[in-house]
Write a structure and sequence with these properties.
Structural class: mainly beta
Distance between the termini: 10 Å
Strand order of the largest sheet: 5-6-1-12-9-4-7
Number of domains: 1
Helix content: under 10%
Strand content: over 45%
Largest sheet: 7 strands, mixed
Shape: globular
CATH architecture: Sandwich
InterPro entries: DUF3859
CATH class: Mainly Beta
Protein name: DUF3859 domain-containing protein
Organism: Seohaeicola zhoushanensis
Keywords: Signal
Length: about 180
């Protein structure tokens, strides 16, 4: 299920910058980090008809990235995504797109929702593994678009849990929403 936090934004202009599976606009004030963290229980949700769950969960805080980088094990209770800071700028509407290998059963490969990016605090747009049919290995990409132009594109490699056992090993099961 897709998870997002308090709104966040960035100042945008042209020209993407690329570095190892990550692209973002070089002319923005965007500070970006990505990776995995233990799933948090949601405090609310908003409608998101183009997602498997038909909603996006809202988190009580913007969690820090605990395991930085593009490798994420397909594990229940683990979330992964992109944490951003913009230095106070705000943008709306920003479309977050998540593409992934086909889900078991439904064959779904694309999900999206609209959010606000920006503000004084950090924000996160992330995905949480809740259901067995979501835990598919392969390349997952999270992309933020504003005015039809990419703000950032981050690719993750979701692997079998035994291929990255140190990631999420201490995430408990009592946090699930």
């Amino acid at each position: 299920m897709i998870r997002r936090l308090a709104p966040l934004c960035l100042a945008l202009l042209p020209l993407p910058l690329s570095a190892g599976g990550v692209e973002h606009r070089a002319d923005t004030l965007l500070k970006l980090e990505f990776g995995a963290f233990c799933q948090l229980a949601s405090v609310d949700s908003v409608e998101a008809p183009d997602t498997l769950a038909q909603r996006v969960d809202l988190l009580p805080v913007t969690p820090p990235i605990r395991w930085h980088g593009p490798v994420v094990p397909a594990k229940a209770g683990l979330s992964f995504g992109v944490r951003t800071e913009t230095g106070g700028l705000q943008m709306y509407p920003v479309t977050i797109e998540v593409t992934h290998p086909p889900f078991l059963g439904s064959g779904m490969t694309h999900q999206s929702y609209v959010t606000t990016l920006g503000g004084d605090d950090a924000s996160i747009n992330a995905y949480s593994f809740d259901l067995p049919e979501e835990m598919v290995t392969g390349t997952w990409t999270i992309r933020a678009l504003f005015g039809g132009e990419p703000l950032y594109v981050v690719s993750f490699e979701v692997v079998r849990p035994e291929d990255a056992p140190w990631i999420g090993q201490d995430c408990g099961a009592d946090y699930l929403s």
